[in-house]
Automatic annotation (TrEMBL):
Protein name (Swiss-Prot/TrEMBL): HNH endonuclease
InterPro entries: GmrSD_C
A Pfam cross-reference name: GmrSD_C
GO terms assigned for molecular function: endonuclease activity
Ranges where the GmrSD restriction endonucleases C-terminal domain occurs: 31-142
Keywords attached to this entry: Endonuclease, Hydrolase, Nuclease
Amino acid sequence: MVPSNDGYSAPDYDRDLFGQRWADVDRNGCDTRNDVLARDLVTPTFKPGTRDCKVLSGTLTDPYSGASIAFVNGPDTSPHVQIDHVVALAWAWRQGAHEWTPEQREAFANDPRNLRASGEVTNQAKSDSGPSKWLPPAPELQCRFVMEWVSVVVDYKLTINDFDRYSAHQVLQTCPTP
């Protein structure tokens, strides 16, 4: 059972306390952002000479809306596909990550199990919400999201507020059994 916590006793959230953005935590020579893009895009193309570490283009099926989104690397186009933390960093901070070491926070921020390439619109709408305040707009994608969200919360021994616990439970009740 995941312990309850209202999240109000945590100090103010600061993204910088989660370490280097898109670090190469698995030491494969590629930053985490490009690892996630390579994993989540269909038919990704790579910049030559980068050992397939710089994604240039591909197609994303947004895991939250189901929409197909073309990704093209560039200052005006890259923001259309963003990397979402399934369990948002600010949410995790309020639910226990503020007590972790800097190394634990950086590992969490770059853990591929907690990262999904997603569309800009759905990622911005989700923000730092848990399932009580945000669920994927496509109902058929809510089970997968909540299952991944709960798995990360449990794996990292985060606490959970009663609203998110109730909402997660309600969604999981509707999920097909494996």
